[in-house]
Amino acid sequence: MNHEQIHEEELVCSGHYACQGCGGVIAMRHALRALGPNTIVVIPACCWSVIAGPFPYSALKVPVFHAAFETGGATASGVRAGLDMQGKTEVNVLAWAGDGGTFDIGLQSLSGAVERNENIIYACYDNEAYMNTGIQRSSATPLRAWTTTTPELFSKETPKKDIVQILVGHKIPYVATASIGFPDDLQAKFRKAKTIEGTKFIHILAPCPPGWKYSSELTIRVARLAAHCKVFPIYEVFDGEHYVINLEPEGKPVAEYLAMQGRFSHLTERQIQEIQARVDYDWEHLLHKAMLEKFEFRGA
Fold first, then answer.
1. Would you say 239 and 200 are in contact if contact means Cβ atoms under 8 Å apart?
2. What sequence ranges are listed for the domain Thiamine pyrophosphate enzyme TPP-binding (predicted)?
């Protein structure tokens, strides 16, 4: 890592309202260290609406614009336009949304912004459910996962929506996945994003201890295991066409990842095999798109 490009000042303050081990806070910390203080953050309704603290206070040392649940993309577009009118083109506009405000309620606003190729960074910190309102399922919730609206006997019957491919389909300049388990890679992607003109979308896996039902000190371990089990591949897509896989998974069985989380404790052996088969299929499909014989590996 080029440490000259990392801002040593912490832009996320202590005293925020996140749960212990919150992946969303870790993600924000790394993102802002890469982007620096010359950044405005747009936050539609999500856990971070609470984490940042009540107006007029904020746990972030950058300007924050709180927006309605469905308006992350539109609000960020408006902030970008206002800054450009003032000649402040060097300011980063970061839309920061959860999976509910990205995959579901905010998808129309996001799609409109990326279709216009607005010069913004849109980051989704994905904890795979509506955690802020009580752990309800979203379209980011994995197959067979427990939530309060998909309880054990009625666990989610459909796979997670592939939000990355939806954004890739818009042919924007840069789409990437990242994980708090690999901070060097995460920060590098935000540094890259701020140098690219047009819309940049970064999908970040951000495990949630109360929602995923694991002990809070295991957050990083869970995040890393998701990548090494191929549940959450780490890769980039440029201009909707060129795929680069950034991390070679260790190929651990999905059962190892599932066993760490209480939200999957009800699964039968057959259901675990079903999930493994889906993960293997998606990984092979990604390899086919990348058409790589070897990986670009940045390391942890």
1. no
2. 59-204
